[in-house]
Structures are given as C-alpha cells and as structure tokens.
Amino acid sequence: MAVEVRDLDESSVRAWEFYVAGHQDGTLFHTLLWRDAVREAFGHRSCYLTAWRGGACVGVFPLMQVSSCLAGTILVSVPYAVYGGTLADDPEAHAALLDRARQLAARLKAQWIDIRSVASQWPELPVVRRYVTFRKRLPRDVDRVMSSLPRKARAAARQAREVYHLEASFDDSHLGTVWSLYSRSMRRLASPNYPLKFFRYLVEHTPAVGSGTGTNGEDSRPGHMVQLIRHGCRPIAGLVSFVYRGTLMPYFSGCDDGFERTHPNNFLYLTAMERGVEAGCQAFDFGRSRVDNAGACNFKRFQGFEPTPLHYQYYVPDGGRAPNLHPGNARLSLARRVWPRLPLAVTRPLGSWLARSIPG
Questions:
Q1: pLDDT over 60 at 259, yes or no
Q2: What is the pLDDT of residue 106?
Q3: How far apart are CA 114 and CA 29, in angstroms?
Q4: Mean per-residue pLDDT for 74-91?
Q5: What is the pLDDT of residue 69?
Q6: What is the dihedral of CA 126, 116, 42, 332, to 10 degrees?
Q7: Distance separating alpha carbons of residues 98 and 100, to the nearest angstrom
C-alpha cells in the first residue's frame, strides 16, 4: 500500500510516542517531551510529520521551524539536540517523509533543512562531517565503574575523591546552581547559554532517576539526574543528565575553573556513571563534539570513549542557502573574542535570546 504523510495532530500523539519508543533508533530527542520543551522555552513552531501505511504508523519526522535573526527561516530536526532525522520502517517511508519536508520548506521559504541523523538517510543529500559522538557500555556493577576508566582518568578521579574530598549529591533543588555554573562556563567558552526555563521544563516533566520514587534506567520513559559537586561547602561543578531506554546522556554541565587542580570534571562524570549503574543504565552517551574541538574530544577519549562519526545531512531548497552558524565561522570571531569579557548579567539574558536563533 502507498505511504501517506500527515501532519502530527492530537489524534496521533499516542501513535507517535509508541512508534519512537519501539523503534531501535528512537532517542529522547524524537519524543514529544523534547518538542514541548523547545516550544515552551524558545517559541519555535513544530512541524512534525507522520507516515502511515493503511492504518499503521510506519515513520516519523520531527521538524521545527526556527525563525533565526542570523539565518532566516530554517527547519531543524531537532533543535538543541544531538540526534534527529526520520525514523521509519523502510526506504519508501523515509522518502515520503523527506518529500513532504521539501514541500514544507518551499511553502515556508526556508533557507534549508538541518537533519541530525546518526547515519545518512538519503544518498542524494549532502553529509556534514563536522561532528562525532562518544558512547560505550557501562559495567553492571557500580564497584567496577572506577576500574573501567583508563589509568590516568582513574587516577584523577580517585585523587578528587580521596585527596581533595570532593562530594557529589543528586537533587532537583540543585538545578539553579548547576545552571549558574553552566552559564559561567559558556561565557568562558564564548558561547551563548540556553535559558534556565528550558532545563527546568525538562526536569519538571520527567522523573528523577534512581530517586527511589522516580524512574530507573531501564524504563522506556525519559528520566533525569541533577548533580552537584562540592569542595567543602562550595559548589564547583554540576551536571544535568537525561536517561532514555537505558542510556545515560550528560546534556549540560558547568565547572568553576578555579578548582581545576581538584579534577572536578573527572569526578563529575565518574559519579554520574556510578549513579547511572545503580539506577540500571546499560550505556553512557557522552554526546557530540566538533571534530575541530580538540579539547572536548581529547577529554572524552581520556575517559575511555572512542569517537563515532555522525552523518548529519541537509537540504537546501531553490533560492535557499546553508547558514554557517557553527562556532568556527570567521564572521563570528569578533563576537567570540568579546563575549568572555562581558559580565554575566549581560551574557546570561543575551545568550538565552541568541540561542533562539542558533538552534544548537
């Protein structure tokens, strides 16, 4: 039977969630939770597409319309996400979803469609080879997490715990403190921070992992962990992670660079993995890094992760142009030099506003 593509509506919401949860490549970023958080925090319009054959859903394509003051109208699958693109039963469903997305781009006069697929999905579309991801299995026993790290990373994490006596705690009440550390780190890195409202929505609409009353790592519903590292009474690092289908993914973190000698980042990710194993997680996804970001890539390798190339793709309609919004853009070099010198009272609200035009 022929494939029919429809816009997502209230009558097909359950079918969407069921399909994503059951598809082997479904991610947190394909869920409607992510859509709702992006709409609430950034105001972007969703253009989610479903593919049907007979009465069965055979594919989904999460797309959001971003009206960027830097790039015009663009369609992104999915904004502020590591992964995206179509999930489908077969090539016919993939092709039908792309055809409808092309029609949508023409109607909206979009400059391009940004498709954040793990593997290339359409041979006719260009592939962006700018990003890699890092992922590995977790030990089954929490006592083996430390020993699973490479020798130097293990030594740094042990020193953080036994010499500098860093302590980790997990509680949603830490969210504001973690966001403050994160926004400070983003200023140092000359990047705009996402608004606290975005993270608060995601935390408030998912259960805490390993809380005893919340979810565990094996649940199919998304969960979260809010984590704070202290040196004495002082917060020096923090992390918010999400869990989906047994995989723990750190999403945003921050660190007080004045305490680097205590190895807070090594301890941060060690204790996140330990908590994840306690909660039943089987894998740890360190997210993506740009291939030209040697610092981030090397740190993840240092923790025992090897890079896997991501095959993002894009489509440029007639009259459109592929925007260059990544940090290596020479046109943004002056802004990146100035950003770390601005006060947090400026970078925090301005970064949240700019993030609406730079969808991650």
A1: yes
A2: 95
A3: 14
A4: 96
A5: 84
A6: -50
A7: 5
Q: Which of 102, 91, 82 is nearest to 27 (CA)?
A: 82
Nearest to 170 by CA among 110, 220, 241: 241
Given CATH 3.30.1490.100, say whether it is the number of domain 133-309: no
b/e 41-74 (16+ beta carbons within 10 angstroms → b): bbebebbbbbbbbeeebbbbbbbbbbebeebbeb
> 4-129+311-323: which CATH number, 3.40.630.30, 1.10.1670.10, 3.30.428.10, 3.40.50.300?
3.40.630.30
Q: pLDDT digit string (tens) for 93-120?
A: 999 999 999 999 999 999 999 999 999 9
Query: Per the structure block, which two tokens stand in for 56?
Result: 């069965």
Does residue 32 come out as left (phi exceeding 0), alpha (psi in the -120 to 50 range) or beta?
Answer: alpha
Under a CB-based contact definition with an 8 Å cutoff, are residues 87 and 93 in contact? no
Token pair in block for residue 175: 């969210």
The DSSP bridge partners found for residue 290 are 131
% of the chain at pLDDT higher than 70: 94
Name the H helices within 1-130. Answer: 13-22, 32-42, 91-108
Torsion sign, CA atoms 324, 327, 333, 337:
positive
Q: Tokens for 291?
A: 């291939």
Determine which helix (DSSP H) or strand (DSSP E) holds 289, and give its type and residue range: strand 283-290
Task: Please state, as a whole number, how many other Cβ atoms lie within 10 Å of the Cβ of residue 103.
Answer: 12
Tell me what pLDDT residue 213 has. 45
Q: Which contiguous run of DSSP H or E holds residue 156?
A: helix 151-162
